């Protein structure tokens, strides 16, 4: 195993260990109960599932993911359709995004972050002259987005729609899709997006609340105000691990969407910059692992897209917590309290290792 692969896996382990520590700390309440241990045990359970899934994915040859991509995509579309069926999909806080059976639950839109990406990379793995054509190079490669994005939007989940569309666009761009198609696609999508936002009052409230955060903090949404207060309380060095106050029923979703804010309060600016540094290190080491691959190959396009979208999700979570973008419920990969996102994130990293191992001359 090469040094880069060792370092890549070590960075993943550091992020996972840091996540376990912060999930436990962020779950502490003002009146300690057994629920704190429940959160930790649940996170460790999902972590174990994710590690096993990643290990299995990493051992697969890269050709397996190329051959399985269409079937995995079809299975995900079926699940996305099923989640909208009353009695099958579970509605939580006005959104119908989960399929639950007993204590087991799954969020199909999380699976789409892998399966849609793999299928898009499968479709663009064709001669460049074909991609330049208007019919064979456009309709087939755009069809997966046309199918998946409306299904996710019906849940409704605009944030995940935009994330999936960005991941798909990344795969198309790296795969060599003509720039003219992005321009035409943007000209069609942007007006449609504006129309959707205008028809959804809660979406407009998020945008106006985001603007208010930078003009009148008193008018800002409660979550953003508490998040900024939590970050500011930590200062340079933080209040100390486990000693934060904002998580004690003040900061919503402290152990999931806003765990980065808890890091800022308890470990200070040093802690938050350390997390950012770990993600940057993971990204640049991953890019070095991709260097031996042919840039036109399925392995390179899929590996680059999976790695980029994982780091992008971490960056978006940080941006939401620091009020750099409108508020959106998005977990921090590998750090937030576990569930479908943790398993999917680890599986994506396992697939990345599989795609890079196939062409690594130092691999066993």
Helical fraction = 55-70%
What's the count of strands? 3
Described by strand count, sense and barrel closure, the largest sheet is: 3 strands, antiparallel
SSE ordering: HHHEEEHHHHHHHHHH
Description:
- This protein has 364 residues and is mainly α.
- The protein has one domain (3-357).
- It has 13 helices and 3 strands, in the order αααβββαααααααααα.
- It has helices spanning 3-26, 35-59, 62-82, 108-124, 128-131, 139-153, 158-175, 179-199, 201-215, 222-234, 259-290, 298-321, 340-357; strands at residues 89-92, 95-101, 104-106.
- It has a 3-stranded antiparallel β-sheet with strand order 1-2-3.
Describe what is shown at a glance:
With 364 residues, the protein is mostly helical. The protein is built from 13 helices and 3 strands, in the order αααβββαααααααααα.
What attributes does this structure have?
single chain, 364 residues, mainly alpha, 68% helix, disordered C terminus
Topology:
Blueprint: H1 3-26, H2 35-59, H3 62-82, E1 89-92, E2 95-101, E3 104-106, H4 108-124, H5 128-131, H6 139-153, H7 158-175, H8 179-199, H9 201-215, H10 222-234, H11 259-290, H12 298-321, H13 340-357
Antiparallel strand pairs: 1-2, 2-3
Helix pairs in contact: 1-2, 1-11, 2-13, 3-4, 3-6, 4-6, 4-7, 4-12, 4-13, 6-7, 7-12, 10-11, 11-12, 12-13
